[in-house]
Design goal:
Shape: globular
Number of helices: 12
Order of helices and strands: HEHEHEHHEHEHEEHEHEHEEHH
CATH architecture of the largest domain: Alpha-Beta Barrel
Number of domains: 2
Distance between the termini: 10 Å
Radius of gyration: 19 Å
Number of strands: 11
Strand order of the largest sheet: 1-9-8-6-5-4-3-2
Largest sheet: 8 strands, parallel
CATH topology of the largest domain: TIM Barrel
Strand content: 5-15%
Oligomer: single chain
Helix content: 25-40%
Length: 349
């Protein structure tokens, strides 16, 4: 096993818990870190103050390294007509619960590419690892983070994106296969997606890059981690495997869906947030995403619809992100899961 990446990240095991904004928690990240893997928090759905609070909560529980993940999407252009059309598309869904959709959509998440307060918070807090999703911030931000001694990782769905991450000076690339749950990390959601699977993408990047590759997508157990390492990856990133853990912020509807037949039928849809994301089959994934509003404005109404549905006792409109390995999920504390994964990995290699 190549120790280069592990030494750089300051971890014992080649396991990274995926950030999963809105689902991972400081308690989860700390438990994973204490078990010798890399715990992560996703802060794309919060601001600098929220990020500082989450970092403080982790540090109250552990002094080990952890990862802070940021969204680097391009801010959407104003499109009042398009937003209005998507609101009308979803109006009948709201009507089922006696609710009205929002009159207008807002940009609920600020991208790191333009968030100076977030950059200042990271430079002050200096987490061991910072990672990017949906693309890259500007060169000045990358340089500032590197100079602060922070290890930088980025998500790529194809070789071109991966090479851009390497050229930008990142220390490692997360090879996100099409099997992965949650938001597809593709830089440009309007571009053609080759939909490369984890196996093929990992091998391509290991061949093409001079920086470490981390496999992600459909990996749920030690055997999967061993396979990723055999392909040349230096670590594996697992997200769905941790959703059922008690430290997860997943609500009971999400957990129940993960235990149900829906776990066997994940699907990629932009309808929930405005960007392609893999979700457990539910009522939201059955909505045809024709004319969906741009990310993250579409997420504004998506969250409103979920809230209206939950108030009526219906959990079928949640952002129940999960990868294709969802049926393999196991409900146990995050630290115990890491220990089990390590045991399985050792047995497999």
């Amino acid at each position: 096993m190549d120790e280069t990446l592990l030494a750089g990240l300051g971890i014992e095991h080649p396991i990274i818990q995926a950030p999963m904004a809105g689902t991972s928690s400081p308690a989860m990240a700390a438990a994973v870190a204490e078990a010798g893997a890399l715990g992560s928090i996703g802060v794309g759905a919060t601001n600098a103050a929220g990020t500082r609070k989450m970092i403080a909560e982790i540090r109250q529980r552990t002094d080990r390294p952890f990862n802070v993940n940021l969204f680097c999407h391009q801010p959407p252009r104003p499109d009042a007509a398009g937003d209005a059309a998507w609101i009308e598309t979803l109006r009948p869904e709201f009507a089922q619960f006696g609710a009205e959709p929002p009159k207008a959509l807002t940009e609920i998440y600020k991208s790191f590419v333009e968030d100076d307060e977030m950059l200042a918070a990271l430079l002050e807090e200096r987490p061991k690892v910072v990672s990017f999703h949906f693309g890259l911030p500007g060169a000045a931000r990358i340089s500032a983070l590197r100079e602060a001694g922070i290890v930088l990782l980025g998500s790529a769905t194809n070789p071109a994106e991966a090479k851009a991450l390497q050229q930008a000076g990142l220390h490692g690339v997360v090879a996100q296969g099409y099997e992965a749950g949650g938001h597809r990390g593709i830089f440009d959601p309007e571009a053609e997606d080759s939909r490369l699977g984890t196996l093929a993408l990992t091998r391509l990047l290991v061949r093409d890059l001079s920086i470490p590759v981390i496999s992600a997508g459909g990996i749920m157990d030690g055997a999967g981690i061993a396979a990723a390492l055999k392909l040349g990856a230096q670590a594996a990133q697992l997200g769905t495997a941790f959703v059922a853990c008690p430290e997860s912020l997943a609500d009971e509807g999400y957990r129940a869906a993960l235990r149900s037949e829906a776990a066997h039928h994940t699907t990629m849809t932009p309808a929930i947030s405005g960007r392609p994301a893999r979700c457990l089959a539910n009522r939201f994934t059955r909505i045809a995403p024709i004319g969906v509003a741009a990310y993250p404005r579409a997420y504004d109404i998506g969250k409103a619809l979920n809230a209206a549905a939950k108030a009526g006792g219906d959990f079928g409109y949640g952002a129940q992100w999960a990868g294709q390995g969802a049926p393999l999920a196991r409900a146990m504390p995050a630290g115990e899961l890491v220990k089990l994964l390590v045991e399985e990995l050792r047995a497999a290699i």
